[in-house]
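dumping this here so i dont lose it again. seq + smiles for coenzyme A
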Amino acid sequence: MVTVAALYVLPEYRKEGLCRLILYYVNMVHAKRLRQLLNGTSQSTVDPSLLYMHADTEAYNVPTQKFMLRCGYKIVNYTNWFTIIPVERN
Ligand SMILES: CC(C)(COP(=O)(O)OP(=O)(O)OC[C@H]1O[C@@H](n2cnc3c(N)ncnc32)[C@H](O)[C@@H]1OP(=O)(O)O)[C@@H](O)C(=O)NCCC(=O)NCCS
C-alpha cells in the first residue's frame, strides 16, 4: 500500500496541476514496484492490501478531499484520530 498525507502546495502555485503531477508520479512508482514484486507470483498469494493507493486528510480539509476526488480517488471511510503523547513520570 502507498499512503499520501499532508499534501500542501503554496497558494500562489495552486490549480496549476502540480499536486496531481506529484500524486500520479508516486502512484506510478508504486505500480512499477508492484509489477516487479508480483512478477511470476500466483494471484492467490498476493496480499490485497499491497495493491491499495490510499490517502488521509482531516475531515475539515475539504479542498484536499475535492482534489483527491478530481484525481480519481473515492472516499471509503471516515475515521477519528487521537493524538497520544507520552507523559513524563516523576
Ligand atoms: C489541495 C492541494 C494540495 C491541491 O494542489 P494543487 O496543485 O492546487 O492541485 P492541482 O492543480 O494538481 O489540481 C488537480 C485537480 O484538483 C482540482 N482541485 C484542486 N484544488 C481544489 C479545490 N480547492 N477545490 C476543488 N477542486 C480542486 C483542480 O481543479 C484539478 O481538477 P481538474 O484539472 O480535474 O479540473 C492544494 O490546494 C493545497 O495545498 N491546499 C491546502 C492543503 C492543506 O491545508 N494541507 C495541510 C495538510 S493536510
